[in-house]
Write the structure tokens for this entry.
Amino acid sequence: MRRVLMRCLAFLVVALTIAAIPAAAWEREDLSAFHERRVKLVRETGGDGVIVLFGYGDADVASSTTMFRQNEMFYYLTGWNEPNAMMLLVPKATKGSNEMIGIEKEILFIPPHDDRAGSYHGELWEGPKLGPDDADASARTGFPIVKSVTLFQSELLEALKGFNKIYTEMTPQPESGEDCFIKDMQSRLKKAAPLATFADFRDVVTRLRMVKSPGEIALIRKAAEASIEAHLAAMKTVRPGMWEYEVAARMQYEYERRGCEWPAYPPIVGSGFYSTVLHYDRDWNQMKDGDVVVMDVAGAYGGYASDITRTLPVNGKFTPRQKEIYGIVLAAADAAIAAARPGVTLGRGGSKGLHQIAYDYINTHGKDLHGKSLGQYFIHGLSHSIGLNVHDPFDYAQPLQPGMVVTIEPGIYIQEEKLGVRIEDDILITENGCEVLTRVLPRAAEEIEKVMGRH
Ligand code: GLY
Ligand code: MN
């Protein structure tokens, strides 16, 4: 009896300990969404070659200073956010219409368990990990087959008995810093399969990434909601004498406590002259009475970025000149948002392009100190796609489609007047127009003054 009681107690202690381990906070889409993407990728490459991609290794991130974060392309196709993994997709060798092309094998390769005492990236140092032979490996990854990375080469050579071609990522995404990673992956693949020919799948995946799934949209909404709270907190705190980095820190605190795991990009908080510097992310200055401050700050949630900018008067009240410029930027943003719908393009040029609409408004309203039009002070693009990257891959010549999520961010930057204004919102293209995901965050000058004044 006593023994039974002890056993029950021991069971209770174990059960309570397990219950006390919090569920993983990282939110990801349903695993079926990643599988569907892999099927699409195989179909759209035509099924005439195997598809291979490596995830980042421990050495691809500066692990003493940063958290591990998966290579975007690999995450997009696998949902796997652990280092040193590889993916191999083998098409069914069927000839005929696209609909017939299916996947014969989907294999995720992950490192075997490593509990050696001195292993810096082993489980004693980094906590329990999934191993390829664990019973739940397939359920936890969504891959029907999970194997050890040590078997990658033999599986690849086996797959290449039916195909001669390997599709992989051959051109780094701009701004990704992935040049070395991609070169290294290619040389490892060439060594593993010297007789194969290679083809780039970047364009195919870019087309897929341009239109977001419902699960991706849900994650972007969460990133935007947390970042909206960060902006509201800043509106209630900014005042003369505060340092820009204090504002950035407060905003990061607000979105991270709402589950964002990292900044979607380094926070840009620039006041006075630095309101005119587009990517000023030093945030080193003290904010002065009479200046404006541009706050381009947002977090990423479940890996998905939001991107929001608001411009505030540091002392809570815009001067008439600041209000005039602010009003022009806001009206240009509103004109672009009103015109955003399937079929129009984001790009410059062409009467239908949203950039042109915003530019035309700015260039026909207001003047600089020399009586010149203001178009010359709108010095960047109006819009970019957001997703796993804050500047997500996109083909800017393509018309908008429902499910795309892009920013609308006109700005006017007059250095001579130390006056920069940018207003940036995130929009989801719908069947008939768009939904502004960041609508609840005050935009009009009077609304902003009201929020700042009340606190
Ligand atoms: N938010 C920074 C950028 O869009 O470049
Ligand atoms: Mn942006």
Notes: The radius of gyration is 25 Å.
